[in-house]
Amino acid sequence: MIKTLFFPFSHISKDQLKCVTTFFLNLGLLPLVEDFKLDPMLARLTEQGILQPIFPLAREVQLVQKQVSSYLDWAQLHRGNEKNLKSLFKEQPYFMEDAGLSSLQSQIRKGTQKKEASDEKKAGSNPLLLLKFAQLLDVQNEDIDDELDALDQSKSSLFSELTGEISEKTSENSFEQSDLVSLNSPPSDPGRIMTEERITSWFRYAGEKELFKKSGASPLLITTSPAVMDYMVSKSEGVINALDIDSIKVHENGCVNEGRWHQTFFQFLEEAVAGKGSSGVDQPEVDDNCLRAGRIKLCLFPGEGMKQFLNMPGQSIAVCLVQLKS
């Protein structure tokens, strides 16, 4: 059976988790933490075998956290000094060589200087740092979305109370709930931000973990980001659009038919990855009261077309985009 791997994110939001578990029984991922002790939900899903994390080494986490903390300390001290920040980023974009706050301050005071080619290569040698910054951004954006959702729920509760008190008035001047509460919008796509950097850094890190050198078929990369899929297709050659299903019925969480559907769906997907199209297993159908629908797109990237992302001759990759329709 093909292994699945969440891509190219190190943080998996509640919306992303809901989406991928609707389609798949289990999912591998590359979190940038030593363990899930601080996240009981992810820890529970890992114990159940639903999530299969490949954790980094403790020293890797500690090093990148030290670098991130140094940058955040520096940014706090030099808030508003955008000119120096842009200059420093141009010459040494990810602060790879020396993570100390004093070193960063010294670089700003002295001004950035051109580096030798070998130094530039060293400065970009740790893909974990960009992935860590992207992770922090995704966590912050999810927190903001949660706060907005809580505000919407508060408005909805207020509206419910008001409608009970002013029902007679609304018959004369009717209005709908959407006038007070914004309609739920689909989840935002974090892959729209730093798309190229996320993808290239993720592939470099996955390459360091030798995830594409292990015996057996390459992992099936699962993404919830249309922006990521679109970018990869635009930058690759010879891409095969193996599946593109705009609407596929899926089961609601807890449905007794969910497990069997998962198995049928994954077998259907395996045949598509193998290039058999729909000649084998038929597309799984939902024949109960579940009404939810999703979208699935599967692209096969031949080895020659993957040179920009994965420096492994002849290594082909399959990427599957899944989304839930609201």
Number of separate helices: 11
> Stretches where pLDDT falls below 50 for ≥5 residues?
94-101, 112-124, 168-184
Mean pLDDT: 78
Structural class: alpha/beta
Radius of gyration: 23 Å
The helical percent reads 40-55%
Number of strands: 7
Sheet of most strands? 5 strands, mixed
Q: How would you spell out the order of helices and strands?
A: EHEHEHHHHHHHEHEHEE
What percentage of amino acids are in beta strands?
5-15%
Terminal-residue CA separation:
30 Å
Q: Reading side by side through the largest sheet, how are the strands ordered?
A: 1-4-7-6-5
Report the principal-axis shape.
globular
Q: Could you explain the architecture of this structure?
A:
This protein is of the alpha/beta class and 326 residues long. 46% of the residues lie in helices and 12% in strands. The strands form 2 sheets. The chain has a 5-stranded mixed sheet, sandwiched between helices. A two-stranded parallel ribbon has the order 2-3. Helix 3 (58-77) packs across helix 7 (127-165). The longest helix has 39 residues, at 127-165.
Could you give a short description of this structure?
The protein has about 325 residues and is an alpha/beta fold.
Write the layout of secondary structure elements.
Blueprint: E1 4-6, H1 14-23, E2 27-29, H2 40-47, E3 51-53, H3 58-77, H4 82-91, H5 101-110, H6 117-123, H7 127-165, H8 167-172, H9 195-208, E4 220-223, H10 226-235, E5 240-249, H11 258-273, E6 293-301, E7 317-324
Helix pairs in contact: 3-7, 7-9
